[in-house]
Every structure is written in C-alpha cells, then in structure tokens.
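Review form for a predicted model. The reviewer records the input and the model, then writes brief findings.
Reviewer: anonymous (R2)
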Amino acid sequence: MTIELNVDQLQTLVEIMTEDNGLKLTKQSFIEVVLDLFEDASGMENVALSDSSVIINKLWNIYIMNSFAPQSPAPTQALSTKSTPSNPALYKEAIRVGKQTLLSEGSKASAARLIFNLLKNESRDAILQAFIEGADITPKGSPTYFYNINKKLKKPKI
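Model under review:
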C-alpha cells in the first residue's frame, strides 16, 4: 500500500512524538517510536516497508530540524470553537487529574487517557479542550490523541 503524507501531516506526527518523547531520541529510538505510532494510526499499519523508510527519513529530518530550533512553550490558547462542557464540575476535575498525572508520570498520553475516561460523555470539542488544558497537548495534537484513545477503547478484547 503506497501512502504519501503532506508537510502538515508529517509535522503533526513529529509534534506527537516530541510531546511524548522530547527532542533527544537517537535515530534508532526514533524509528521504534515511529513504527509504534504507525501501528496505532489508522491506515498506517499496512504501509509498505519502502514507503515507511521514506516517511521515517522525512520525519527524522523534521525532528532534527526541530531539535535545533529554539523551543517555545506549547500554546495553551483555547480552540477557536470552545465547547461548553455539560458538567463543568467534572470538566474541572478532569483538568486537575490530568495536570496531576502529567506532573507525577510525565506522560501526556497517560494524562489524556484519564481525561478522556472522565469526560467520555462530553462533546469531542470539550474533550479536545480538556487535553489542551489538562495534559499540555497542543491544539494540533489533541485530535490525534482523541482519535487514538477512542480507537483503543473500541478495539474488541480477545
């Protein structure tokens, strides 16, 4: 299966990997992270080896360029279509739990999973906003976290 990613898609993948792993990965570690990400991303799990090598090299080049760029704090501004949660108290609790998890475990993915579980009955936009506020995930990265967490929860358990 041949697949091509545009620059925005490549940059988003690098942002996701950087949020979870920082900018100090060796190339081998980076490749392992990318292959794990491919397994979790819809449509990427069956990418041909030749295509994955090309994509990995493009991602690595972006990753290396990002590691030399001055780092600015992640944006924490709200999504343009901020959604009002149906249960504001639960929303605040999810933000608190997410921040606490991020501090104790250092994992944005763990914080996002806890937020998602608490807010699973809220709108998608409310959950995305909670990821930004409670797990320090970028506005561009939050939909990917939402998709991956939602996908894992829907997987049938054997």
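Findings: The CA atoms of residues 34 and 136 lie 21 Å apart.
Further findings: The two ends are 27 Å apart (CA to CA).
Recommendation: see findings above.
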